[in-house]
Amino acid sequence: MRVFIAEDQEKLAKSIKRGLEHYGMSVDYLCDGDEAAKHLILHHASYDAIILDLMLPNRSGFDICRALRERGIKTPILVLTAKSATADKIVLLNAGADDYLVKPFSFDELKARLEALMRRPADALPPELVVGVMRLDVGGHRFFCEEKEVKLTAKEFALIEFFMRHPSQILDRERILDHVWDFNFNSFSNVVDVHVKNLRKKLGQTDKRVFIETVEGVGYRLVS
């Protein structure tokens, strides 16, 4: 899963980013409202959810939320706000926010609300993925192959999740980098190849037992 954060307090944005990355998510953030709006309008399809602070410099979270919805962008939006009055919450929801969280908040609640948004029926992300003999428990953060649990690092988990959401599709390295790593990552790195190699080893892949296939000159494909 890939999440975008628009939050003017960089310390808080980095804290949320670290927390979500611990669970295998890929996270980008910007602290300026105008920059965040432009980025989301261009790249919204890259994200599974948006965390949007209400009080941003140069452009408010409210304006960003409304602008995205007016363009038909349906990515789930969780708004962070210091306003606790019912009227303010109603205004946020009417602007297109899917949920809100009043500051100060606990990280556990933020994570739970974020996961709940991504489980909603419209464009829902299923809590469990099954491809062939592989099964991924997204909520429980557990991966099984032939019903035997395989221990994965956070990035390995995010990588196999991305493959399992796109079975039999050829995924080029740039697309994998865009979704599993943040936008500050060096696109010329061989990190994708290294992580695929490690995944294959943990899955017990051999020449006769292929889980992740190399498509020469393009990228990789998960065999379904």
Q: What does the model show?
A:
The chain contains 8 helices and 12 strands. Helices cover 39% and strands 22% of the residues. The strands form 3 sheets. The protein has a 5-stranded parallel beta sheet with strand order 2-1-3-4-5, sandwiched between helices. Strands 6-7-8-9 form a 4-stranded antiparallel beta sheet, with helices on one face. It folds into 2 domains: 2-118, Response regulator (Rossmann fold, 3-Layer(aba) Sandwich); 128-222, Arc Repressor Mutant, subunit A. The protein is an alpha/beta fold. Helix 2 runs parallel beside helix 3 (61-70) and helix 6 packs across helix 8. The longest helix has 13 residues, at 10-22. The protein is elongated. The protein has helices at 10-22, 33-43, 61-70, 86-94, 107-118, 154-165, 173-180, 191-203, and strands spanning 2-6, 26-30, 49-53, 77-81, 99-102, 128-131, 134-137, 142-145, 148-149, 170-172, 212-215, 219-222. The protein starts with a strand and ends with a strand. The model has no long low-confidence stretch (mean pLDDT 87).
Set down the secondary structure blueprint.
Elements: E1 2-6, H1 10-22, E2 26-30, H2 33-43, E3 49-53, H3 61-70, E4 77-81, H4 86-94, E5 99-102, H5 107-118, E6 128-131, E7 134-137, E8 142-145, E9 148-149, H6 154-165, E10 170-172, H7 173-180, H8 191-203, E11 212-215, E12 219-222
Parallel strand pairs: 1-2, 1-3, 3-4, 4-5
Antiparallel strand pairs: 6-7, 7-8, 8-9, 10-12, 11-12
Helix pairs in contact: 2-3, 6-8
